[in-house]
Amino acid sequence: MSGRTSYLAGLAAEESVAREYERGGYGIVARRWRGSGGEVDLVLRHGDDFVFVEVKKARDLARAAARLTQAQLGRICQTATEFLGQVPDGMRMGMRVDLAMVDATGRTARFENITL
Asked: Transmembrane stretches, by residue range (predicted)?
């Protein structure tokens, strides 16, 4: 897959995941939010909680899940903390990190509140 094709496939995967969260009552706060340490694909709000979502796309869901590394999760957590520091009372709000996976057919799945 070329760089441009991969980029567009990633955008489509993120859009699909965002729509699923919206159907579940989550509000989209930001897409591809970039902090000094990295980027978070989706920043969502659900009640008083923020949810930071990393989206991974692959041929199948297992491969998509395997693409998240410990180093990436560390950068996501650092970036999430930076985001919360910029929101009024953000450091007092609940937060979690989710991994959303998309396979080649567009099927999605997610793991909520992930740790590695």
From this structure: none
